[in-house]
Amino acid sequence: MNADLSRRLLRDMIRIRAVEEGIVTRYSQQKMRCPVHLSVGQEGPSVAVGAVLRPTDLAVSGHRAHAHYLAKGGDLPAMIAEIYGKATGCCSGKGGSMHLVDERVGFMGSTAIVGGTVPVGVGLALAKSLGAGDDIVCIFIGDAVLETGVFYESASFAVLRQLPVLFLCENNLYSVYSPLSVRQPEGRSLAGVAAGIGLGTSSGNGNDVAEAYDLIAAAVAKIRSGGGPQFVELATYRWREHCGPLFDNDIGYRTVEEFEDWKARDPIAAFTARLFAVKTIDDKWLAAEGAAIDGEIEAAFRFAEQSPFPEPSERFSDLYAA
Amino acid sequence: MSKMTFAAAIRDGLAVALDRDPKVLVYGLGVPDPKGVFGTTMGLQQQFGSRRVFDMPTSENAMTGIGVGAALGGMRPVLTHQRLDFALLSLDQIVNNAAKWRFMFGGKRGVPITIRMIIGRGWGQGPTHSQSLQAWFAHIPGLKVVMPTTPEDAKGLLLSSIFDEDPVIYLEHRWLHNLEGEVPPGDHRIPIGSARTLRSGGDATVVAMSLMSIEALHAADHLALQGVHCDLIDLRTVRPIDWPSIEASVRRTGRLLVVDTGYQTGGIAGEIVARIAGSCWKDLRAAPQRLAMPDVPEATSQALTEAYHVRAEHIARAIGQLVEKPVEFASLAAERRHPHDVPGDWFKGPF
To answer: Can you give the residue range of the structural domain that contains A144?
Structure first.
């Protein structure tokens, strides 16, 4: 992996975490009045996908989509403004944190119903397949999506038609507070299930961003060359509570030991240490990038705070074409 | 103009759309099969190719979401269900995605998908092949819902639905498929949201949709011979409803009967009665009435459906009560030449 790409991956992870932590520090102000599902701890898969995909490739996602949107190149001030419910938000205040969109960079939408955008992504791929070119569609899913019927229906059709789809599965072990052990039989691998449908599969450590990048790049290359839809399962872990800015290791659904074990495998700390060791980065680079990111994020929150709310009459707009 | 059946008019509309715009896709379970969804898709795959006209897996929910995605990707998909009841498997994609997409993303992009659902009745269709759930879909902001009655409207509303920029639920009654009428050639469109006055008369306003408009037509013509003249308004669209047409009529007649193909409770007829009671209160000369399906599922046995369906004689009786005149209606039933559970001699089953 070349130095520029390494630095990009690290920078993108640091940026996404800083955005999420920026939400954390301000959330109690009651100005962001919508549920937020933060991606702290699981930045690796997102930035790896973001570095592999082109702007003309498309992506859809679910409720925990901040990292996906930002990694695909989504507009940061428009995302923050959306969470603040402002007219300048990416959905003009109609969507909030769980509905992000930036069509300029191919981020076609994230929605709140688990599995809900899976067929939409396959349909976007069907439309792509009827045209020319080798663009693909990335469908961001979590482990719980493999418990929805619509995933099986959609994946099966993608295989049937050999559509250009990447199913990017971040397995963070929990559906809200319910562990995989109450949702899947013991010993079943999600990638194994996907293989049974006929998807090409690979799996690896999502907290190792270089490994994630290599797996995703290989899968996307297969899709572009007509190899059919691929499923990449990446193990990762959500640090903060399912929904909201806090930690929830005290409520009893997971152990502090498990959390600390995953935290010790922080994708950012690990990659930072690796790039330091090979002298791809130094303290000066980190400080400069950190300062630039902090400045960008401050500006985004300032933009959101200073933006106007939508006019009350806008509650009726955008229902049908004008 | 040429004379054709309601089913042939749908096929004609699909062919016109496919021919006019390469972005139009037509798919659904059985679309290219030998029966061609009661003839409505017959030969389209041969004519337009399997990339644009295709069969699908028995995966209603995903195939609806795939249509939503294809629509977001620039296509104009037309998805067909052999019965409305199967489309219930796809409510998540219809309600949470198709209907919401434009709104929840701040108007970035709409979902120009048309979803055809066929309503069954009689001849053993039973509890899950006969539901007329237009009220469910009409309840959802973001959807449009059309229910054509005549062959001309079947074609014209289908073309308007396909080329509409928003999702349209297109409800067609199985008992109308063999109805014949004059249909204009080419890209003939009937605007969504506009009712049609099938009969004019000053004694009462009868509002109906789909098959019930045909039953109401028989009733209105029968009563006209007895000196009772009705405005008969065929809704054609149940979301958005053409309120100006209904209100203008009720302001003249002062009496309203709404006849619905769906269940009574929570239905379109109730919605119209409520709205008109509010907007035309001072013009009303009698309490507005409705006739709808009883609040029980349709049973399978013909012994249990005879008294279940609303027919012309029931509508004639209700109009007589509304205008407070003695009217003869029994002959409407007596003169019917085919069994009660089929639309005509052409229907021999099985569905």
So the answer is: 3-303
What CA–CA distance (Å, rounded) separates B202 from B254? Answer: 9
Residue B227 burial class via C-beta count within 10 angstroms: exposed 0-12, middle 13-18, buried 19 and up: exposed
Q: How confident is the model at residue B337 (pLDDT cuts 50, 70, 90)?
A: confident
Domain CATH number, residue A269: 3.40.50.970
For A92, the closest of B66, B74, B106 (CB atoms) is B106
Question: Closest to A157 (Cβ–Cβ): which among B66, B75, B141?
Answer: B66
- Sign of the Cα torsion B176, B178, B182, B184 reads positive
pLDDT in tens, B28-63: 999 999 999 999 999 999 999 999 999 999 999 999
CB contact under 8 A, A156 and B59: yes
Q: Which position has the token pair 């079943």?
A: A188
Residue A230 DSSP class: E
pLDDT digits (tens, 9 = 90+) for A126-168: 999 999 999 999 999 999 999 999 999 999 999 999 999 999 9
CB-hemisphere CA count at 13 Å for B52?
Answer: 21
With CA atoms as reference, report the closest residue to A82 among A246, A262, A232, A300: A300
- CA B113 to chain CA centroid, Å, is 17
ipTM > 0.95 for the complex: yes
A197 inside 8 A of chain B by CB = no
Which residues face A200 on adjacent strands? A230
Q: Inform me whether the C-beta atom of residue A156 falls under 8 Å from chain B C-beta atoms.
A: yes
Asked if the structure places residue A257 within a domain, the reply is yes
Residues with Cβ within 8 Å of residue B7, at least 6 apart in sequence: B38, B39, B40, B177, B178
Set out the domains of chain B in order of their start, with CATH numbers.
2-183 (3.40.50.970), 196-334 (3.40.50.920)
Q: How far is residue B339 CA from its own chain's centroid?
A: 23
3-state DSSP assignment of residue B308: coil
Please tell me the total count of domains within chain A: 1
Size of interface A-B (CB pairs under 8 A): 137
Catalytic annotation, pick one of B129, B173, B222, B309: B129
**CB atoms inside a 10 Å sphere around CB A295:** 10
Amino acid at A166: L
**Cβ pair A103:B57 closer than 8 A:** no
